[in-house]
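stuck on this chain:
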Amino acid sequence: MNITIETCLGSISAGISRINGLYSMYAQKQGISYGIIDIVYLLRLHGAVTQKQIAETCKMPKQTVNSFIKQLKSENYIFLVPTNTEDKREKEIRLTSTGERYSLKLLKPFFELHEQVAGRVGMEVLRQLSNTLNTLGDALERELEIEKASIKWEEKMKTKKELVKKTTRQVMHSKAVK
């Protein structure tokens, strides 16, 4: 273990957790779940997204995303559009006109907060931080994918070794029986 690396990455992780916690507390003060805000924010930003895209982008479980989508749909803030004629399950989520108005009202305090924060730290710091965190996230993702591939390879090799042992035992047993 390299204590310098652990200290740096631990500090980054703690900082990200702190920011997420602050957003969550701010959302609670607004009387809304931060997960709803994440989804509405993505819809404002991109116009249309799928549940899978939301889950991947926000790192939310699909079941949680589905619950939020049902809630937003029941309040007539969103509608679903099939994206694939063969697979009707995959749907794009879009804001209704009521949802557009709701999103502006819901997100306005966050937009104002973001402008205040940007004024305090400066756009250059925000750009650098964004680039750095994306670079770190990409590296972590690559390492995790390598780890997944390595685990799969080890499992495959273990299975092959077990098969070879089993086959060898069977051959040895059949020779001993003869």
